Amino acid sequence: MLNIKNLTVSYQKDRILNALNIEFKAGEIHGILGMNGAGKSTFFNSICGLKSIDSGECLYQNEWVNSDHISFMQTHTYFYPYMKGIEYLQLIGKQNPTFDPHHWNQIFELPLNQLVENYSTGMKKKLVFIGVLAQDRPILILDEPFNGVDIESNEKIIQILDYLRKKGRSILLSSHIIHSLTDCCDKVSYLKNGVFARTYLQEDFNELQILVKELVRQDVADVLDALD
Q1: Where are the alpha helices (DSSP H) in 23-120?
Q2: What confidence tens digit (pLDDT) does each residue in 105-120 have?
Q3: Residue 157 in 3-state DSSP?
Q4: What 3-state class would DSSP assign to 15?
Q5: What is the pTM of this model?
Q6: Residue 160: beta bridge partners?
Q7: How many domains does the chain have?
């Protein structure tokens, strides 16, 4: 279990995350939903040690979480110049001698012998996802994994995540698109104003969808009303 206790994070004088408390269980896919700028990436970066925190704890099995516990897929990934897809996967998976990049690539059919710089955005996303699988760690954290990926590949990613969930992995993923999460998650936590306003179970997903639609409708209505 990944246990987040009183996590507080600021940027300059602005409080981004405000004393967050939440648990992520093994064998579950847990979505983090929030509008752009809600703090989803800050939350993930803080767990992974890439963002300094003001206070709080991020614990896995009662010890401070570290890179041996987590495979992290960031929204944007840097690739070395002139690196081929297969070289990237060999580099990422070098600590897992049982990992076979060609086996997983049967699903996505990426041109692994081509330079990554010639890949499309969606192809790069799928390459990084295979790299996450290569690390074979108990916690997967995926920041906007469906962005820029075609519908068919989205479904493939969802099937793989479901397979890993059944294997006991703890999977966290974020999106600002609600259907991306309700299609695959056991729970979805709504991040707003630096706190988790509520965690929704699958039976509550319709209620969550109604809430988000109403928030968006009101924002648009306010702007349109100002035109009259």
Answers
A1: 40-47, 85-92, 101-108
A2: 999 999 999 999 999 9
A3: helix
A4: strand
A5: 0.91
A6: none
A7: 1
